[in-house]
Every structure is written in C-alpha cells, then in structure tokens.
Amino acid sequence: FTGSISPGVDSIGVLAFDEQVGVTELGLAGDRLRLNIDLAGSGGVPGVNCDQIILSNLDTSLSLDTIDLNLGGTLSGTATNWFLTAHSNLVNGTTFNSVTMEGALSAQLVYDYANSRVGVVPGMSTNALILSTKTVDVPEGSTAMFDVKLTYPPSGVLTVSTARIAGDTDLCVSSGAALVFNAGNYSSWQSVTLGADEDGDVDNGGATFRCSAPNTDPDDVTATEQDNDTEVTVSFQQSVSPDAGYAGAQDTYLRSESYSNSNYGTATTLSIRGGYNALVKWDVSAIPTGAVVQSASVQFRVTTSASGAMADIYESKRAWTETGATWARWNTAIGGTYWQLQGGTGELDKGSVVFASFSMASKTTVSDELGSEGVACVQNWVSNPATNSGLIILRQNGATTTAAVASRNNSTAANRPKLTVTYIIGPGGAPPQGMPPTGGERTPVAPSSRDSAHAQAPNAFFVGKAVAASNRFVVVGGMNAASLPSAERLEVNVAAGNAQQTIVLDRLPGTAGTVYHYRRALAERGMVKAMRIDYSEGKWLLRGELDVCVLACGTNVSPWAWRDGRWRYLCSRWLFSLQRLLSREQGEHNYGCSG
Questions:
Q1: Separation CA 387–CA 445 (nearest Å)
Q2: Is there a single domain that holds both residue 319 and residue 255?
Q3: Residue 535 sits in which domain range?
Q4: Does residue 391 fall inside a structural domain?
Q5: I want to staple 426 with a disulfide (CB 3.0 to 4.6 A). Which of 32, 301, 432, 589 is the partner?
Q6: E strand or H helix at 375, and its extent?
Q7: Strand partners, 422
Q8: What confidence tens digit (pLDDT) does each residue in 440-457 have?
Q9: Rounded CA gap, 564 and 561, in Å?
Q10: How much is the pTM?
Q11: What strands, in cross-sheet order, belong to the sheet with 135-139?
C-alpha cells in the first residue's frame, strides 16, 4: 500500500491507502495491519485531524482480522476526541466496530474507538475452504467422495453447500450437499458424495461442482464419469467374420416365369433385375439380446454390372429358407406356403420402406448405411431373433438388364455379402441403463401349413359390415381407430368370393379391449378357421386362417383336391372335410378352386 494525506484544515481530513498492481494477498488469517499516524506532523508538514481512513482497490484476498491504529505525536484534543469525531462519519451505514465491505473494490473503513483499532470483515473473504482434491472420478452407477474443511473457526455456524453448476446431468450430489461447520469442528474433514447415474452412452461425461458458504470464497471440483458401457462393432460375413468359422449367412434369388418354382440357394451370384429378386440374411445371435443397436450397414460386391442400374433394399417379412424359397413360394420346406405376391413383393412379404439403395453400374464393392428404419429392423433381429427374415433386394423400376452381386457361396470370401453392426452393451452383457432400444415392437408373421391372413392396416374392420377377401388372404376394410370397441364380444362379417361368414370374436381377458380372438371348434362348419385382432400403436394387426383356397372376389367357392392321382371336386358342404383331408392325409396334396 502507498498512503497519502489530505490535510483537514477546518474540515474533514482523509488518510487514503491504495492497493498496488500485483498485490495478490493482504496478510494472513489472524494478522493485524498497524497504521502509524503522526498527528503532530513532521518535516514542516502540519499534523492531520483524520476523520476517515480509506483503503482503495481491494480486489485481492483480504485475510486480516483487524487493523490497529497507532496515534503518535500531539494534537489539540485527545485521541478519544479524534475517534469520537470519526464516529460521526461512519461509512456503509454501520454503527458497530466491524464493517462489511460487501465485495466492493473500494470502501471506507472504520474505527473501534474503544480499543483504538478497526475491525475488518470483507464480504466474501472471512473464511476459506480447504478441499481434499479438485478432481474426482465417479464410476457409472456408483459413487465417489471428496472432503471439505475450513481454514479457521467461524464466528458462528457456517454451512458449506455443494451443487452442480455445469456439465453432465448424470452426475449429481448423492450426500453431503449441506455440511455444517462451527468453531468446534471447522478443522475436521466432512465428506461430499458424488454419484453417476447409469446411462445408455459410452461417453465419460464431466461436470463442475461448486462448494460455497456465506462470506466465503467458493471453490470448485471437477467430476468425471467413468462409463461402464461398451461400444462394439461386429461384422457378419460367411467364413470371414466375426471369425472364419461363421456359417450364419443365407442367400438366394427368386426367378419368375418358367423358373418360378426353381431355387437358387447354391448359386455363387445373386441376380437382381426385373423378374429376379434377391434374398439375404445373417444370423446375428452373437450380439447380446440386450444390446442397443446404434448403426448398421451392408456391403455387396457387384459381379455383373449394367449401365445406370440401381437396387433397393427392403426388410423381408417371410421366414424363408435358402433351399426352399422360390418365386412362387417362400418356403417349400414347411408346407409350400405362397408369397402374398409372387416374387415376395406383397405388403405381407416385404417392408414398405427402402433401407438403402446402391449402384450396380460398375463392378465394384458397394457399402450402404441402413437408415433409421433399417437400424430398427436390425434391433428387432437382435432383441427377438425369431423376427430375423433378412432383407429382400429389388431392382429399381424393374429394369431387365442383367446385373448381379456375389453370394455367400462366392469363391472369393471378401466378396460375400457383409452386415456390419455397431451396438452398445452394458456390464456383463446387460442392456445399457437409461437407454431404450432403437427398434420398436413388431409382431412376426408366423408360418402356417394353411392359407393365413396377416394384414396390417391403418384402419380396421367395419363392425357388422362384410369384408372382402382375395387371393387366399382375408383383407379388411376400415374403422375409426380412435373408437376402440369396449364390448366383451366383437361381431365381424367376412366375405370370400361369394361366400360370407359372420364370426363373433371374444375379448381376450386382461387386454383392455385391445385383443379379440375367434377359433372354430373342431366339429363346427365354416370357412374361417381362426381369427385374431390386436390393436397396437394406432393400428389393428389382423390374423386369420381360412379352410379353403379362395380366389378373387366374385368367384364361387368351388374347391378341388388332388387325391389318388387325379383331381376330385368337393362341393361346398365338404369344406370342413377338405381341411381335414389336407391336415390328416399322408403326403403332399395340391388343392385349388374353379371359378
């Protein structure tokens, strides 16, 4: 400090002290600053009748407890008179011996006329916090601690509060948010416990926690979350990855016209053009079912190119097999079930969303990221392996120029179809906490040995109105999805060609009116074998089974059966018998309808 005097000639005198640049601390706790004031003057300078003392620019840590005044020399009057005079000029509106500076950069300090000293209580610097550490690592799903104590005893009770002021909200104060100190325990460590919530990412999040108390400079602790989730990327490629022993890939292509019943599961290439559609799938069971898929991509090697050729990738909805899928049938191995539309292009055969598109214009390796819908599809394969029916690849615009990609049987292993998946998994293969799977719930289409109706529509049955059927599948009309039926039973009329049947579906107990089901008793006659209606996410999912193969609407239901080496006509009264014949007789039986 440097001091200057403004003499008070018949007026108030001022003694000023100005903190200099570079001063970082004024005294230590318990120190006293002694101000020697020569009231008599010296060197021809007259004495000073000081009424105020000013300390300026106090912007550093002020640790002084008191300032002592030492009055030397002689002056008319007494020291007491001097202080009493000063008493009439108290600053900051105080009337006691200690003055709070209230954090200002300058302040007019005071006196203690009884003890000839000035008590100093700066607003933010009466005490200091001591922290055991300035950085803390907190394991995800667990806790970690740091300790706090005070530099010297407070005059009363002092509460130290700790709170997050910035950073990852997964980090929080678990305990010790308010620690109480007094003159008896100020030097004893007290603990603050920080916690890290489980989350679904793999990032080591960070946050800043501030410890503060009244009239005390705050101090900060930086906490870092030690994440326990793991991000994994794995590829599936026949005989290559995850390792050379991987044999979970399947693929084939479907060929139309005179080859519609031919299977190409052993081909080394997959033709993709008008009348040729490719099927591919990979067993992804190596990924834990609790994993959350982040991204997915596919890779193909174009072996036969065509100018401007493009192919689209969709989800396949049918549980086809590599050696059973043909253009006409999707799995001859389990009952000869037909695609809804030949080539696997019906809405019950494939998804409606293009996951990705790739060029077949040149012989090269192409890679494509599957979009969000594709990631959701792969998530379903992981969470529920029974839904994995792979992908179906169609040529854009049905172009007929020849183009193909390598199959899993290709002699060059690196050219075989490859699926790459990035996922997050928690400790021990558990799902990462706090993060839902990216895929939604789906209801798989189960195979059946009879013609089955599986239709999903934005609306559903008209209650009490006839609903047409075509192409062996019951199709449905519309209903306001906002008005869910609340009755215990739901009456539905179903028409197939010229045939109609009214069925009554019972509400499945415990489903709050969202699932209705019907199944005909063994000896009961009728064209509808079974039906189930599920309401979910604004849509009705419909399943039904017919006892006969019904052609387009408007045709008569006139069933025929192939038996004993020839076609036999079965009149309508034998509908139930036809079903029994197909289910009980040995060997393969073909059946059809006249119209």
A1: 8
A2: yes
A3: 448-595
A4: yes
A5: 432
A6: helix 372-383
A7: 233, 295
A8: 333 333 333 223 333 333
A9: 10
A10: 0.48
A11: 135-139, 216-226, 206-213, 158-167, 178-181
